């Protein structure tokens, strides 16, 4: 595994690093912005080569950051697509081994945290034929459901299913409602507000604590020095490793990093700390 990086980086404004996701050459087999007007919904098409299907995602920029695509999401989508095309070269293979083909194949059960537009969760269902639950705050759910419904044909064609559910970080009751029996938990660009570090870690502990059968895969583009605080806290409760590092985009010094979190044995001191958050 690659080394987990914790050194301070220069602060980068996250509001300037949202994914544009636009191709103007008219190639239908590339990511393409289908409709974009200031203050209006934006429709984008994301081509998944491994299944020869295009996913359509609606963004609502005027509604806030949860309604827009961030760079780490497309990194995870690319990794899922590449895994479907050639698992032998995929950094996700050790985590997704349960999705191997065969007559006794059992679909993976996947949970996505902070799903936003739902692109990652929908792509996971399509590429893996997985049973996916996508989650976010209650006010994000209607657009999330819209995007799931918009891609029903691709989901059906590839044997995947997606369920939408509200999940507030730090709320044990919300975790109880969706359950804990997941093979893999996914997230992208969820570490950006420091006041959410403890609630996110508490939710992860409820899902991973003491469990050896569930992995958390998180794609993250570092923007602030304070991001280090999240990883320092996370390593007290989880084993944290780097699975993959993206090359920096043009004009940037850093790229998206994909981390693997695995639960350690239950620590009462952490449970007490998390409950005080």
From TrEMBL:
UniProtKB keywords: Methyltransferase, Transferase
Molecular function GO terms recorded: methyltransferase activity
Positions of the UniProt region annotated as Disordered: 83-103
Domain of life of the organism encoding this protein: Eukaryota
Gene Ontology BP terms: methylation
CDD domains assigned to the protein according to its UniProt record, in alphabetical order: AdoMet_MTases
One Pfam family of this chain: Methyltransf_16
Cross-referenced Gene3D superfamilies: Vaccinia Virus protein VP39
Name of the featured protein: Lysine methyltransferase
Native organism: Trema orientale
Lineage: Eukaryota, Viridiplantae, Streptophyta, Embryophyta, Tracheophyta
């Amino acid at each position: 595994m690659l080394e987990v990086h914790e050194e301070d980086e220069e602060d980068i404004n996250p509001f300037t690093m949202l994914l544009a996701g636009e191709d103007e050459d008219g190639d239908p087999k590339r990511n393409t912005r289908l409709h974009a007007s200031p203050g209006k919904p934006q429709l984008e098409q994301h081509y998944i080569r491994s299944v020869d299907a295009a996913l359509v995602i609606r963004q609502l920029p005027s509604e806030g950051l949860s309604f827009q695509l961030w760079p780490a999401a497309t990194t995870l989508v690319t990794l899922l697509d590449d895994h479907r095309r050639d698992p032998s070269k995929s950094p996700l293979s050790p985590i997704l081994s349960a999705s191997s083909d065969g007559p006794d194949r059992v679909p993976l059960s996947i949970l996505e945290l902070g799903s936003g537009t739902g692109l990652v969760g929908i792509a996971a269902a399509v590429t893996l034929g997985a049973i996916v639950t996508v989650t976010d705050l209650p006010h994000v759910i209607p657009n999330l459901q819209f995007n799931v419904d918009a891609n029903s044909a691709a989901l059906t064609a590839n044997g995947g299913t997606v369920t939408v559910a509200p999940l507030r970080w730090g709320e044990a009751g919300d975790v109880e409602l969706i359950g804990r029996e997941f093979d893999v938990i996914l997230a992208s660009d969820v570490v950006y507000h420091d006041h959410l570090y403890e609630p996110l870690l508490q939710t992860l502990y409820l899902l991973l604590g003491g469990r050896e059968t569930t992995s958390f895969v998180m794609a993250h583009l570092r923007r602030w020095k304070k991001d280090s605080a999240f990883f320092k806290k996370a390593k007290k409760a989880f084993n944290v490793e780097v699975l993959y590092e993206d090359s920096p985009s043009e004009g940037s010094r850093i790229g998206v990093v994909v981390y693997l979190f695995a639960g350690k044995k239950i620590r009462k001191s952490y449970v007490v700390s998390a409950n005080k958050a």
